[in-house]
Amino acid sequence: MPTFLAPIAGLVLAAGAGSRYGMPKALAQGDDGTLWLVRTIGTLTDAGCSPVIVVLGAQAAEARALLDDFGLIPSVVVAQADDWAEGLSASLRAGLRQATALPSAPIAVAIVPVDVPGLRRSTVARLIGTLPDGTGTGTWEVGPHTLRQAEFDARPGHPVVIGRAHWAELIGSATGDTGARPYLRSHEPRLVDCTDLETGLDVDTRD
After folding, report:
1. Burial level of 76, CB count in 10 A (0-12/13-18/19+)?
2. Stated pTM of the model
């Protein structure tokens, strides 16, 4: 197992209204009745992320009540994106600000949107170094300058692991509904192939 310099936090982006889906995805559930939000929190926790930060926005009170019903408050850190209507970047900024403000700042965050309900523990673990990486070279340490992204059939996806040395610039530059994509394009993260683990597909609509 690798030696972590500090905790690696999970960061769930769940503030959007889900206009194409028809409801906030923080309230969505799978065919088995499991809430996407609860499943994602569990996946990150099981992979070794601690703490897990959840960013809420649209219908935040309802989403927070659900977390409370499942006994996830106060173990989950809730961040509020009051400007959630701006798009994904608002969630990202709120989450990174919350990570920065934690009493013991994590060395990095593993970021996933709530609308990837097929996310597996093994995928997260590979990205944060608790499982062998896609090249078969074994585990590797996560540090403050880490910038790492999962890919599936050569398609970039989630999780994205971002070391804390990048947070301030991301908070200052992320705008609109693009999240971290422009930053990742210009900084060239290490891509970790996870095609053997899952599809990495997100869910935009109910069709």
Report:
1. buried
2. 0.91
